[in-house]
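Researcher: Last one for today. Full complex below.
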Amino acid sequence: MSQVFLPHTLEELWTIKQENPAALIMAGGTDLLVKIRDRKLPPAVILALENIAELRQIERQDGEICIGSMVTHQQLLDSPIIQTQLPVLHQAVAVLGSPPIRHMGTIGGNICTASPAGDTLPPLYVLNAGLELKNAATSRLLPIQDFIQGPGQTLLGSNEILYKIRISIPAPHSQGFYFKVGQRKALAIAICSMASLLQFAEDKRILEGRFAWGSTGPTVMRFPEVENTLIGEKLSPIILGRLGQSMAALVSPISDVRASAEYRRLLASKLPLKIWQSLI
Amino acid sequence: MKIAFELNGIKQEIDYLPDRRVVDLLREELGYTGTKEACGSGECGACTILVDGVSKLSCLMLAAQLQGRSITTIEGMSPGKKLHPIQQAFVDKGAVQCGFCSPGMLMATVDLLQRNPAPDRQQIRAALSGNLCRCTGYQKIIDAVESAAAEMRDKL
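Model: Here's the assembly. Have a good evening.
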């Protein structure tokens, strides 16, 4: 039998962590408990964060939105701030898992699981999300693309937790998009996903275009050199098709139980066209 | 570990292994076998229960997480012998075939109708998308939820 701790404050958490250095941190548990049951992780002391109230808040401070790491996907779906200010993230959590998974799973858990298929990750990459990591003594801020190093690999220190996700509110005249292809509509692990954030000038020309790809490499990927080719262009199927071709040449998908690398590359080339489809 | 929680309105204080799953606690320790387990990994919804009124998966929760919570299982859906209107609609509409998914479907439906008392068929499908019926009786399940929602709205 392993012990399970459910601290109510960060102070309690640091004390327990110090006394049980090998304890596994549990957010919503929807990935962790499956891994333990499949014996991919050894049984260990579990340190669950769910009762720490300060990790469950969504706040807006000036031009920034701060999301506590233990905010559930359902909380994001229900939040007017997320709906209005971060629609790209809202679209992604709407197709994440199933209702009970959304009631349990958290944004911090999705980030720290660091699956290339994690549904919140492509939106967080295009939003240039900053991750505030905290230990008993101090905190640090890392961009999400630096924090995630590979499948299941992050720079989370052994004494740290992911505390908050910090996101600057996108500029006015920005539009967000999230598209995912899975084997079914619910409970689907993405075969290929794409988030995009486009900022337009008054004359509808693109000021900035950001694209992030899920399930097409060891981590979510962005290609700024291709993104930059959109600057000054007007949105059209030709531009988006060309962009998809360039992106598809750069992604590095693998073949697995869900799809072949070739199919993933094909999807990567076509997903940008969905932006056009959703606008007309 | 001592765990105090409320099960279907009745206070419980039990001594149980904190790292066992809630579904094991319900079925094996307390004999509440209405809650089913199928996939054990969050993909089928058979083990859905309500935790503080919200649908969650009892195969992905540890017993220790119940401390101070109030949970509802299928056994507590309706007090006494009379069926809950959602249960009655499942019977009337033929939404139960082998019955294994029914407890989870019913719990998911309670959660849905609390959030949205008048869902359309697409919203019902989305709300039940985490519950699998291997008999594939989805149309009748959706019929039942639609009918239960109407019935419950009439009573308000």
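Residues 98 and 186 of chain A are 6 Å apart (CA to CA). The longest helix of chain A spans residues 237-250.
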